[in-house]
Write a structure and sequence with these properties.
By secondary structure, the chain is mainly α. The protein has four helices and no strands. Helices cover about 85% and strands about 0% of the residues. The structure holds adenosine-5'-triphosphate.
């Protein structure tokens, strides 16, 4: 087997493999986690709304970072759920704490992203309506 020290600086085969494995993790989460599907769909709606409402490039960048962070947290939460189930197969208060706090992290950042979205979109919507 190739030693890690002998590897070239950039191996396209390894790079392709790492993209493939990462996309499998994303596809698994999409198939199995309703919240991930909801957040991804919300991201598409936000992106389209940003184009229609002439949201500035800087604000779109802020929205992209907020949405990207929520989706990353969803993926990490899925990973934590699986690690927990692998290690703890019985009902255990510690498993509950691990899963609930990981879910709490997703919730806190989702709320933060929603606030960012409201700050950006509400004035524009109000301007159109009144
Ligand atoms: N082994 C366990 N011991 C104690 N409580 C657990 C255990 N596994 C899950 N729980 C509790 O049940 C809740 C739901 O757990 P579950 O693994 O079904 O995750 P979930 O939030 O339903 O995930 P999903 O998003 O996949 O539906 C957890 O947040 C936790 O409070």
């Amino acid at each position: 087997m190739e030693s890690k020290n002998n590897r070239s600086f950039v191996s396209w085969t390894r790079l392709k493999k790492s993209f493939y494995y990462a996309s499998q993790g994303i596809a698994y989460t999409w198939k199995n986690e309703q919240n991930f599907r909801i957040h991804t769909s919300a991201a598409v709606v936000v992106f389209v709304a940003a184009q229609l409402l002439n949201v500035s490039a800087a604000e779109q960048a802020l929205l992209a970072v907020s949405i990207g962070a929520v989706l990353c947290l969803e993926l990490l939460n899925t990973s934590i759920e699986h690690i927990t189930d692998l290690i703890i197969q019985t009902f255990d208060e510690r498993a509950k704490i691990i899963k609930d706090t990981a879910a709490g992290a997703v919730l806190v950042f989702s709320a933060t992203a929603a606030v960012v979205g409201m700050i950006i979109f509400i004035p524009r919507i109000v301007h159109i309506l009144f």
